[in-house]
């Protein structure tokens, strides 16, 4: 069974982002970039399935600029077998990414698509769901557990009421949540081996995907600083604060 794992290059989660002076977007000059943390969980799950003998090949795919080569190499060092880089402008919208991944999936014919549940830069949480719809495959989102037995996939997912268990046939799309696993670190020998693993490069235009944006961001602004909390000595004082300051009563 082949597993396809889409990954995204984002600002490292340890970096405090800054806006450009004209507020047209986030300033990415000299900023550390890395694999989206939820995508790292998807990579780890795919590698574990391969180590358990369930999967025969793990292929990672990234859509974006030349910098995506770095995160593909990182994924290869963790245990993926092969990489695919679809050259495109950074920041293309989730629907265009989903259409691109659909085209790649039709070429690769995987039995399972594992994605992170969302990217930490835009928090869209759309690509996995739209990809499943475009492929007409069943989907399990926000997976905290998963098991594969024959041609059937069982996904335990987190919902507002608790946990929900879904059973679905393969091929399928699964988006991974935090509690699914703990991603491993790449060892130095595996980092060296990753340099010899193949990365296929495609141009997004060759896949026939229209990347024309469907919305325009007028400007960006940093969130307002939250005010410090206050301690109240009685219920009456709390009610008065809610009336006079919070204006919720």
Automatic annotation (TrEMBL):
Keywords: Electron transport, Transport
One BP term from GO: carboxylic acid catabolic process
Cofactor(s) required for function per UniProt: AMP
GO molecular function per UniProt: electron transfer activity
Matches recorded under Pfam families: ETF
Ranges where the Electron transfer flavoprotein alpha/beta-subunit N-terminal domain occurs: 23-211
Quaternary structure and interacting proteins, as annotated: Heterodimer of an alpha and a beta subunit.
Similarity annotation: Belongs to the ETF beta-subunit/FixA family.
Functional note: The electron transfer flavoprotein serves as a specific electron acceptor for other dehydrogenases. It transfers the electrons to the main respiratory chain via ETF-ubiquinone oxidoreductase (ETF dehydrogenase).
Protein name: Electron transfer flavoprotein subunit beta
